[in-house]
Amino acid sequence: MALPGGVDMAAQKRSDEFEIFHAYLRQNGLKRTHQKDLILETFLQSEGHLSIEDLYSRVRRKDKKVGIVTVFRTLKSLTACGISREIHLGDGLTRFEHNYHHPHHHHIVCTECHKAIEFVAPELERVQREILDKYHFQPIHHHLQVYGVCEDCRLSRRSLDQGKYDSEKVFARDALVLSISMEKRGIELYRDGAARNRDQAGSEVFALIAEEASKHLAKLESELEDLLRREKGVGRAPAFLHFDSTALDRVLPDLRETEHNGELRLDPRSCLEVALRFEKGAADFFREYAAGFLETAGKQILIRFAEEEMRHCTSLTSRIEQLVGPVC
């Protein structure tokens, strides 16, 4: 996925990870070797939660001279410099997952089959921040794992989902889903306003804005389809980003507040002001939402959506000024 300006985020991140690893080796008086670079390269190409044996097996397919001790020590170095992090799934094995510029997340772990579902929930993070602030506590790191028995194991059925997913790509998918959900809410608002508005000119304004929003929605849906086509299996991954859908609803203006004697009569300016309030609210919501995440493709999607909403605000403001003069 490309960053604004055409820079490929995946290629840039890979370059950064190699630089971080090499700097760590220099700072700790350790030699840089072809084998260590191969182990890092193989780790970065692998998805899911890898044990030392998992990574050793994959590296050996490329170079049979690499020993398991070298893999173990290299993984420890990757963890020390922040490229990977250790996790435990209750089966006695230490596993490693991608950490650098991946969204901080938690795990739900099945104690029977040891399947792990990754998730991030901003509401959970918000509650945690409130508790830490209450006790004036400065966190260093945190990690939540919930252990239980998955539905497949409870029903003694074979799991249909055995895939290993890159959390960053799944996060990008869910960021697009979130953006699409917000855009659909806006279209519903404008279409409802167009259908109910007794002011003909105002109704036409709502219909026009709904048409513009539909074009933006089509672009977002096309981007999601392209991601799912390009990243095989990501579409089957469990939801990673869990958001409070009622928070999206709170951004929507309530047209009932503008009714008079049970009727909606909004002139073109009033319709534009309703749309401006929604678009600005959506932009603020996504900008604040994105601020809680590290630099990832998913975060860029959220930021880009906020920027597009702000550009729409500028367009709406211009239209209002054409009708009635400068907007304060």
Q: Would you identify the CATH H-level superfamily of the largest domain?
A: Ferritin, core subunit, four-helix bundle
Secondary structure class reads: mainly alpha
Shape: elongated
Rg of Cα set: 25 Å
Query: How far apart are the termini?
Result: 39 Å
Tally of helical runs: 11
Instruction: Report the strand count.
Output: 6
Question: Given this structure, which CATH class of the largest domain is correct?
Answer: Mainly Alpha
Low-confidence stretches: 1-7
CATH topology of the largest domain: Ferritin
Strand order of the largest sheet: 1-3-2
Order of helices and strands: HHEHHEEEEHEHHHHHH
Question: Which range does the strand content fall in?
Answer: 5-15%
CATH 2nd-level architecture of the largest domain: Up-down Bundle
Number of domains: 2
Helix percentage range: 55-70%
Q: Layout of SSEs?
A:
Blueprint: H1 9-27, H2 34-45, E1 50-51, H3 52-60, H4 68-80, E2 84-88, E3 94-98, E4 106-110, E5 116-119, H5 122-134, E6 145-148, H6 151-154, H7 167-196, H8 200-230, H9 245-251, H10 268-290, H11 297-324
Parallel strand pairs: 4-6
Antiparallel strand pairs: 1-3, 2-3, 4-5
Protein described:
The protein is 58% helix and 8% strand. It is mainly alpha-helical. It has 2 domains: 7-83, Arc Repressor Mutant, subunit A; 167-324, Ferritin, core subunit, four-helix bundle (Ferritin, Up-down Bundle), CATH 1.20.1260.10. The strands form 2 sheets. A 3-stranded antiparallel β-sheet has the order 1-3-2. A hairpin with a 5-residue loop joins strand 2 and strand 3.
